């Protein structure tokens, strides 16, 4: 016969088992990962750019976010060393007045991964971006996939690297009107060789909800590598039929993804 004490014990044990089972199911999800729970509604968005660009590459996306009354700041990535680039993001995050979505394109996924542990960051968004693990050699990881065509178009003047015009138009901005791509080429910011040697020491995506936009026509980062990184982090993932510059060729789609991460 079950006593009152035994009955109470059984109820508690059953509730604990159910909680453990539910958590296990959530942890095992490979499609939504940390993004499975409803995101916190926030009003601040910080956006970081990668190589061959500057903060103005986010203009089209920012206009759409501002129309929803979000406070947006584009970081001017110095493209010098990883610590200096991370520092530029951290200083902008320090100035935010509350929870913030941190967004990175291309190389700046490194910055999102490292600086995203900042206490004000509520969610991470990667746009055709690098997403290494803590201490991981991204270059070695990338070499496990076919080399994207843009890599052959990088030229150096001493320690300064940039893309040739042909590679920029064809492999970086391939789905943009030629006239627009030529303007972007004219303002591309050179990067320092030292920037490429840095490794992240933290992986914010292991503790923060993450979203990822894969560019299926990407010729700068291998799309299958993007898919691998997105799946590994458990990010909510979308695929955009776009070049590496989906943030410019498909600003509505990228803005929508950021708004989702912001809880809208």
Can you give a write-up of this model?
This is Pimeloyl-ACP methyl ester carboxylesterase. It comes from Rhizobium tropici. InterPro entries: AB_hydrolase_1 (IPR000073), AB_hydrolase_fold (IPR029058), Sec-Metab_Biosynth_Hydrolase (IPR052897). With 264 residues, the protein is of the alpha/beta class. Helix content is 38%, strand content 17%. It is built from ten helices and nine strands. The strands form two sheets. It has a six-stranded parallel sheet with strand order 2-1-3-4-8-9, sandwiched between helices. Helix 2 packs across helix 10. The radius of gyration is 21 Å and the shape is globular. The N terminus is likely disordered.
List its salient traits:
264 residues, alpha/beta, six-stranded parallel β-sheet, disordered N terminus, AB_hydrolase_1, Pimeloyl-ACP methyl ester carboxylesterase, signal, Sec-Metab_Biosynth_Hydrolase, AB_hydrolase_fold
Mind describing the biggest β-sheet? 6 strands, parallel
Please state how the strands of the largest beta sheet are arranged side by side. Answer: 2-1-3-4-8-9
Mean pLDDT: 89
- Helix share, percent: 25-40%
